């Protein structure tokens, strides 16, 4: 494990793919245990078999081709794809121990991913009115490289983020990703950066302290999600 990680948090990395429903059940139980004070907080990095997940705002006409299992996720947002080649980070933290600022939590998590992408030479950003992490695709247009989706129960967070390292981008064609159909989806591999899971994890976890420190501060009022 990366030196300097907060020992009060469980930092878990799974090498084998974890079925989405199993992960969701585990997260739900762990969320309740953290809220009850019977389990430590958790940051969990994993990969799923192909699946479409529906957030609480998902619209039926945005499920274009349900070629994979569709799971009601219970998080905010709309339809998202998860699959091989995509790193998913589930972040289960007790915000009662930090600033009780949901917007600040999302802002800090976005910043964590953006800073890590920069370590691999990929400039990315937040975009007003469009949740997620955006970058410039090989055709020069904006495209999504990372997704964000969260749920808060009793001030304990659930779900988190996903980053496209080298997924099959055609799998996103079964949905309107996050309800935004005028922009495409890209990946580190498509942008010419060969980054495997262990290398991504190491870079991400090296910046975990910055992410946690950001949770102690209110969200900047001028910044957009």
Description:
Strands 1, 2, 6, 7, 8, 9, 10 and 11 form an eight-stranded mixed beta sheet that branches. A three-stranded mixed beta sheet has the order 4-3-5, with no helix packed on it. A hairpin with a 2-residue loop joins β9 (142-153) and β10 (156-164). It is globular and about 45 Å long. The model has no long low-confidence stretch (mean pLDDT 92). α2 runs antiparallel to α4 (208-214). It has a single domain, classed as 2-Layer Sandwich (BirA Bifunctional Protein, domain 2), CATH 3.30.930. It is an alpha/beta fold. The chain is built from four helices and eleven strands.
Instruction: Name the overall outline.
Output: globular
- Ends: how far apart? 31 Å
Q: What is the total tally of β strands?
A: 11
Estimate the strand proportion: 25-35%
Helix content: 10-25%
Uncertain spans: none
- Could you give a short account of the major beta sheet? 8 strands, mixed
Question: What is the CATH architecture annotation?
Answer: 2-Layer Sandwich
SSE order and pairing:
Elements: E1 9-13, H1 20-36, E2 41-46, E3 51-54, E4 70-72, E5 79-82, E6 86-92, H2 102-119, E7 124-127, E8 130-136, E9 142-153, E10 156-164, E11 184-185, H3 197-206, H4 208-214
Parallel strand pairs: 1-2, 3-4, 9-11
Antiparallel strand pairs: 2-6, 3-5, 6-10, 7-8, 8-9, 9-10
Helix pairs in contact: 2-4
């Amino acid at each position: 494990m990366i030196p300097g990680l907060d020992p009060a948090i469980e930092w878990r990395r799974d090498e084998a793919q974890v079925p989405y429903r199993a992960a969701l059940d585990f997260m739900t139980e762990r969320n309740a245990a953290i809220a009850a004070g019977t389990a430590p907080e958790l940051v969990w990095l994993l990969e799923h078999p192909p699946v479409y997940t529906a957030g609480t705002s998902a619209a039926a006409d945005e499920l274009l081709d349900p070629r994979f299992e569709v799971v009601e996720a219970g998080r905010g947002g709309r339809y998202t794809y998860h699959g091989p080649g995509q790193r998913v980070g589930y972040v289960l933290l007790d915000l009662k121990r930090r600033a009780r600022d949901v917007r600040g939590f999302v802002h800090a998590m976005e910043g964590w991913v953006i800073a890590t992408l920069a370590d691999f030479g990929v400039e990315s950003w937040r975009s007003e009115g469009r949740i997620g992490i955006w970058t410039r695709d090989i055709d020069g247009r904006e495209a999504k490289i990372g997704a964000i989706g969260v749920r808060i129960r009793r001030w304990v967070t659930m779900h988190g983020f996903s980053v496209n390292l080298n997924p099959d981008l055609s799998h996103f064609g079964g949905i309107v990703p996050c309800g935004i159909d005028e922009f495409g989806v890209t990946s580190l591999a498509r942008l010419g950066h060969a980054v495997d899971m262990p290398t991504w994890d190491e870079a991400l976890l090296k910046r975990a302290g910055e992410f946690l420190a950001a949770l102690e501060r209110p969200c900047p009022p001028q910044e957009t999600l």
